Amino acid sequence: MSVELLHRFEHEGKRYVIDPETCFCFECDAISWAVLNHYPLTSANRIYHVLAGTYAVEELREVVGELEWLRATKSILPTPKREDFQKIFHLERGLKRVTLLLGDEPVPAAARAQRRWRRDRTEAAAEDECDIGRDAIALLMGRSGAQTDLEFEIIESGSVHDVQRLAGWCGQAFAAAKLAGKRIKVAVRVADVALARPPEALQGHAVSVRLELAGDADVERSIRGLVKVRPDSLVGWAKSLESGGDSVTARVIVRPNHPRFEGAVEAVEKAGFSVIELDLDGALAAHPELSAGAMLDGMRASARYYAERLRGHHYFRLDPVASLFWRIHQGSAQPRSDAAGTYELAVDRNGTVYPSPRFVGVAAFQAGSVRAGAIDEELLGQFDDVGSLTTPACMRCWARNLCGGGTAAVHHARSGSCRTPHAPWCEAQRAWLEAAVAAFSLLSSAGVNFTRVYGALRRAQRPSLFTMAKAAFRMQIGIRPVEEADAAMLTEWEDWNEAAYFAFNETGLLMATRYDREMDALHPRGIDQELMLLRRNGEPLGLVKVRPDRASRSAWAWIYMHDPSDYASDAVRKSFRFVLHEAGDQQALDRLLIYAGAEEQPLCAFLEAIGAEHVGTLRQALYLHGTYRDVRVYDFAEQVV
Description:
The protein is α/β, with parallel strands linked by helices and 641 residues long.
């Protein structure tokens, strides 16, 4: 079986293509589908010859040109460098997450009172030595290594039994992370919640509620919302948990225990929760008798409901669908999805260490004890090979960078080996991922904001050429970096050009050698990012340059269209507005200031049409041909934020 360079599939009467390496996907028409039956292994001339009897050669050239453009922007069929290929197989070290499972046994009231009033310091010290929460935090900090973003989760069953104890552990985790110079997310989860009057769609399924706390949260007050003396309704849980403010995120986790869970997401969303998770892996690991194929219909129905809500601009987060959409949107491959053993450990109430919460209670996977200070490194080392890169069944699978090799606990429950996926599970996983890719393509075409869907802006990132090129592919203009081959053209464009793009900057003197102008055009200075604007056929139409200022969360920009008539094009305006918005999201900008010469009326009209506001004029800021000229300043703030 050969590796698919581009995976093609049909879903509900429509055709789609996805690149297994970059996760870039798009919908195909009939002619594109026919071309992709040969591309990229067949030469363009051969494709024209084979398909000439069915399609016009000019149309075939246009399709091949679009595919070549996608290839040039590295959206599809990237050629990895040797050093990049080595990085893929480099195993990043350091623990990222520890889960403490306390079960459902509350601490007796008499014991709490005795501990509260105890005066004997020797006994108090001995009890502190058995502080399981402190030991679990020490395990996380001690094995985190160079990792800077950590997570500590506490799980109880039924209800929280000792608010002060849990709040104390949360405080210890925040303090330990701060002293170590790390960031940490602390979560408290109540598993197997008993609901009063549960919706019919949730009957027979396991429901958990989880609070994710930031460092400035009122921890004890937030955790008290998890204390329930008697069963409460789902709406009651939402009212008590969703009022924690920006520092607290409430999440409902539904673990299906049978295939009929198609209405579960709708029931939870209507109760008032904005973050929902379907724990399908937990269900398949806990119930090996369940058919993965039978669970597929429920997952498809849930994804279909989610897509309909998003198309109606009712934004909430449904995992794992939202996180999958985010990875496709960002073009970020995930060769390993399960952190068990390598980046994640679990500790039970007795101090026994396991590779992940799904292995707790399985004697063969006991990996040591925090109380004894012992870790079975050999056992945990077996999990270093988990993931699609080192799993033979995954290496030739088109879904390897979306699936990430699956979950070790699911594989162990179904095949008896953590590194051997169960074939029926793989088939169901591929079918589900094809449905998700089709849903993403439709939602992207409908203009759904996936940043809002995922609910987590990646503020540290620079503008992603991949993301911008992907967005532009659905519009009328393309984007790529300036290349050495552009030297002659850029020199011709810039030669004695009075546009503010070339003249209003620190190197804008209209005098230099041809070599100097080529070097200036091809090598932006400092942190400038200069990109070429392209038509759909690959022909250059203009330039855009962005210079960010991290201190003020703003940026300066210059725009140039070689043909002034392009400034008036509705298609160019719409596409450019989308690209600027995408760049602003990626850069975390509050405003984008754009310069235009007072005589550049087509550019000024273009900026006003895309939503920029004229906020001022730099008087006599540009000296040209013996006279001082004004430069207008436009603010593109509202769309960028």
